[in-house]
């Protein structure tokens, strides 16, 4: 069916959002309704488009929806501080420095200086990503200063466009710019961005090289295809179509479909020839498959996405959830375990996290399956949440190092690389991964301190979550509906968990808590209702792959633990999880554990979460009894 809410918005006297919801009796939620109904989504309702263009029909099934950067507030926590720190850094980068290279190329006065590093010529490699993050952050947090900065940047950049809309960008930054301008319309209420979006797409339709050579293992320069990462262009072009309703965006998106690689996963999650190509961009390409599925509803596309996801989980992922040693997929013959001996560039942390967040979110949206939230959680705590903060003149984290001998967190030797773009996008995305919804209730995916304002069918409800998870086992939620309301609350039961419990107002609730699924509580909720979710935390050995069963990392709950080391022989870990939990002994600090018979009182041998390790602090994440000394 057509989206009635969208149609009503185009009329002279549109229904209010609340009246619409009451009339329909459901949330605006169907296969033809992509977005959480919000005044922020102006692009879908603009009156200057013909009536037939105001509604974008989508055919893909949507089981759950994220709250689309609306109604979710991060409460004080390590993760809220990470977002706030990133916001301050990016907000304070000089507008003139960001725009300097664009202005010079256009022959305009160019105060300031280029950012440097990968942005020495101009900031195009990251500019679109920064706009996207600023637009989404301003929507999620009501940050008008950040929105104003983004608008100013777009206006300054638009003056540098050539008469034909030439942005002086290759495929990679051009695609990011399409995404940034689409989000300035959708999330920042900046309709003028649609004008510049159309100009650069019209230019791209004529001028972008359409060679589209697929990526290959050899020669080396083909690891990301030619032109570089051309196969990622479809997602944001499809998004531009959904925001504006203009068919040419979809038609141009179809040009960049990556069926050559997607088809490898049509019938299997272990194709023989999927390895050796660039890890981040090939994961990112499946977001294009996700948008194609949403628009077309072709089940084969969804199956390929699911098989690709399982390919990563079964043969490519470290204990952290990361993947891609030397930025490549490896052959499924023990190569991942072998890479721990030879590589220090184990995981391109910000970029690969961004691609993974999107893939898992698409799959959770389309299938409703809780298992995809497990990967989101792993990456939150052990990948982007464990990254060093960006600071100074664009110093930022790039590679996570899981080398078997030991590693350190270091900053990229180049500033303002691709990872300085995706870092900002990731921390903004925290707002959009905690809660999902359907017409009957709310799904709690991540257990992060936060507050949700949910416009349910019967009225508004506020759900507040406070917790020290994953450092402690208890998660507290309070429910504040405007009036007593009946709805469902679903909680993700982590795949690793055992004996998860739920109490309501102090009383234990009988609920099925099957690992890897949702557990559901449906009742009439009253103001002041309290929920306690208990997820017991315990240590587990996590082998790198089946070829190296003794080459293991340690996880406690969803958190990877590493040992603080300084030139020390590798210790032998207990052989079973039961022995491991007995061997690691808590200290007076909730995140720090010692091991029995630890040789010295020094903290340098203690175990702590990988996310607590700072710059140049030595650690060991993986252990192997065959290795008797450090390798560096």
Explain this structure.
This protein is an alpha+beta fold. The strands form five sheets. Strands 2-8-9-10-15-12-13 form a seven-stranded antiparallel β-sheet, with no helix packed on it. A hairpin with a 2-residue loop joins strand 17 and strand 18. Helix 4 packs parallel to helix 6, helix 5 runs antiparallel to helix 6 and helix 7 packs parallel to helix 9. The longest helix is centred in the middle third of the chain and has 19 residues. The N and C termini lie far apart (about 60 Å). The N terminus is likely disordered.
Write the layout of secondary structure elements.
Layout: H1 4-9, H2 17-24, E1 65-66, E2 72-74, H3 78-92, H4 95-105, H5 124-141, H6 144-158, H7 171-186, H8 192-207, H9 233-244, H10 247-255, H11 259-262, H12 279-296, H13 299-315, H14 335-342, E3 347-348, H15 349-367, H16 371-382, E4 399-400, E5 407-408, H17 419-429, E6 435-438, E7 441-444, E8 450-456, E9 459-467, E10 474-481, E11 485-492, E12 501-504, E13 507-508, E14 518-525, E15 529-534, E16 539-543, E17 552-556, E18 559-564, H18 577-583, E19 584-586, E20 593-595, E21 607-609, E22 618-620
Parallel strand pairs: 7-11
Antiparallel strand pairs: 1-6, 2-8, 3-4, 5-22, 6-7, 8-9, 9-10, 10-15, 11-14, 12-13, 12-15, 16-17, 17-18, 18-21, 18-22, 19-20
Helix pairs in contact: 3-17, 4-6, 5-6, 5-7, 5-17, 7-8, 7-9, 9-10, 9-12, 12-13, 12-15, 13-15, 15-16, 15-17
């Amino acid at each position: 069916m057509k989206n009635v809410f969208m149609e009503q918005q185009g009329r002279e006297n549109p229904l209010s959002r609340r009246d619409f919801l009451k009339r329909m009796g459901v949330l605006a939620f169907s296969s033809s309704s992509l977005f959480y109904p919000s005044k922020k989504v102006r692009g879908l309702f603009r009156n200057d488009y013909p009536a037939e263009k105001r509604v974008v029909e989508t055919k893909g099934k949507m089981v759950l929806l994220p709250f689309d950067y609306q109604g979710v507030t991060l409460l004080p926590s390590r993760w809220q501080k990470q977002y706030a720190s990133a916001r301050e850094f990016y907000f304070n980068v000089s507008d003139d420095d960001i725009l300097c290279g664009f202005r010079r190329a256009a022959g305009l006065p160019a105060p300031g200086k280029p950012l440097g590093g990968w942005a020495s010529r101009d900031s195009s490699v990251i500019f679109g990503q920064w706009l996207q993050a600023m637009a989404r952050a301003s929507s999620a947090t009501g940050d008008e200063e950040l929105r104003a900065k983004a608008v100013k940047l777009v206006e300054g950049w638009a003056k540098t466009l050539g008469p034909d809309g030439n942005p002086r960008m290759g495929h990679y930054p051009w695609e990011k710019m399409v995404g940034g301008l689409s989000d300035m319309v959708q999330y920042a209420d900046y309709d003028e961005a649609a004008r510049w979006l159309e100009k650069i797409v019209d230019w791209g339709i004529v001028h972008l090289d359409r060679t589209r050579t697929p990526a290959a293992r050899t020669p080396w320069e083909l690891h990301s295809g030619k032109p570089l990462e051309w196969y990622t262009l479809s997602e944001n072009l499809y998004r531009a179509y959904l925001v504006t309703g203009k068919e040419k965006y979809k038609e141009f998106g179809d040009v960049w479909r990556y069926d050559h690689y997607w088809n490898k996963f049509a019938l299997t999650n272990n194709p023989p020839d999927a390895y050796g190509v660039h890890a981040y961009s090939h994961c990112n390409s499946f977001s294009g498959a996700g948008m194609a599925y949403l628009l077309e509803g072709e089940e084969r596309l969804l199956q390929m996405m699911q098989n690709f996801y399982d390919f990563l989980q079964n043969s490519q992922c470290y204990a952290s959830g990361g993947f891609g040693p030397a930025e490549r997929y490896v052959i499924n013959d023990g190569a991942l375990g072998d890479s721990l001996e030879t590589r220090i560039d184990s995981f391109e942390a910000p970029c690969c996290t961004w691609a993974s967040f999107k893939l898992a979110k698409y799959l959770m949206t389309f299938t409703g399956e809780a298992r995809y939230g497990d990967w989101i959680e792993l990456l939150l705590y052990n990948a982007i949440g464990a990254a060093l903060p960006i600071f100074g003149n664009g110093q930022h984290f790039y590679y996570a190092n899981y080398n078997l001998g030991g590693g350190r967190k270091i900053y990229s030797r180049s500033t303002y690389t691709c990872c300085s773009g995706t870092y900002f996008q990731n921390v903004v995305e925290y707002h959009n991964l905690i809660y999902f919804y359907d017409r009957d209730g709310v799904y709690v995916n991540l257990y992060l301190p936060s507050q949700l304002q949910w416009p349910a069918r019967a009225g508004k409800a506020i759900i507040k979550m406070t917790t020290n998870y994953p450092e402690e086992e208890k998660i507290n939620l309070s429910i504040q509906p405007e009036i007593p309301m009946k709805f469902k609350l679903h909680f993700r039961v982590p795949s690793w968990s055992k004996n998860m419990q739920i109490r309501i107002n102090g009383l234990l609730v009988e609920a099925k808590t099957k690992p890897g699924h949702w557990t559901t509580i449906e009742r009439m909720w009253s103001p002041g209702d309290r929920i306690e979710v208990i997820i017991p935390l315990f240590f587990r050995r996590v082998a790198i792959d089946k070829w190296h069963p003794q080459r293991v990392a340690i996880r406690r709950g969803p958190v990877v633990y590493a040992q603080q080391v300084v030139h020390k022989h590798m210790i032998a870990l207990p052989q079973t999880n039961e022995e491991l939990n007995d061997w690691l002994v808590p200290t007076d600090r909730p995140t720090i554990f010692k091991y029995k018979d630890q040789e010295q009182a020094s903290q340098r041998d203690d175990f702590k979460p990988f996310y607590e390790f700072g710059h140049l602090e030595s650690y060991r994440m993986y252990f192997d009894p065959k290795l008797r000394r450090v390798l560096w």
